[in-house]
Design brief:
alpha/beta; TIM Barrel; globular
């Protein structure tokens, strides 16, 4: 039996996005593959996973040719070869060493990997991602990586109850993307900005997000 509450939650999020240029990614980590099948029937096509083994298992279970898979969690270098043939986008590229591993495996697999560079916008020591200075160095390094398609930037800001603080983080991300494109525009294959989750995606969209990652708001608490 179809979960009509799931359909209502998806429809609610879609109505609040109200922008065809923004890609809605349903975050399904720690959820059973059956809920992906149901969400697909209700129109969702983009799904984000954070754990490699879980990601691989679900991808085999969900045999829909028009599903787009996003890897959004921290990616260990020894798991790159498993992820890049399947994930349309890797949102969480957070070090030059990971960039090099992706490039190496992309060469071996004869493909181009679509990546977003993760920025630690709030300088939170508990989060992954590049600082401003490190991001500049990585952009320079990407000129040596022809098998990586740079699609944009991603962030997970510090958790805060202050919407104005959240907005400032997102606004800063948009400015960083604009500055990066101005300086290294020939590197970028697209100008994606992946930011915003269940509690703050509307603010993120107002500040320029092109991809929002919604878990709880669609699938409920994990």
């Amino acid at each position: 039996m179809a979960d009509l509450k799931l359909k209502q939650r998806i429809d609610n999020i879609v109505s609040r996005i109200d922008n065809d240029a923004v890609r809605l990614i349903g975050v399904t980590k720690k959820k059973d593959a059956t809920i992906i099948q149901e969400a697909y029937e209700f129109g969702l096509r983009d799904f984000g996973e954070s754990y490699v083994n879980e990601f691989l298992t679900k991808q085999k279970s969900v045999s829909k040719p028009d599903v787009t898979w996003h890897f959004i969690g921290h990616l260990q270098r020894n798991k790159v070869t498993d992820v890049i043939p399947i994930a349309k986008f890797i949102h969480s590229v957070d070090s030059i060493r990971l960039v090099d591993e992706i490039e190496k495996n992309a060469v071996l697999l004869r493909l181009h990997a679509n990546v977003l560079l993760e920025v630690n916008i709030s300088n939170d020591p508990n989060k992954h991602g590049f600082s401003d200075h490190e991001l500049t160095a990585c952009l320079e390094h990407l000129y040596q990586c022809p098998h990586i398609a740079l699609c944009g930037l991603m962030t997970i800001p510090k958790l805060t109850n202050d919407p104005s603080e959240t907005r400032n983080y997102f606004k800063k991300m948009r400015l960083i993307l604009e500055k990066s494109v101005q300086s290294h525009g020939n590197l970028f294959k697209a100008h994606e900005l992946s930011m915003g989750m269940s509690d703050d995606f509307e603010i993120a969209i107002e500040e320029g997000a092109t991809m929002v990652r919604i878990g709880t708001g669609i699938f409920g608490e994990r």
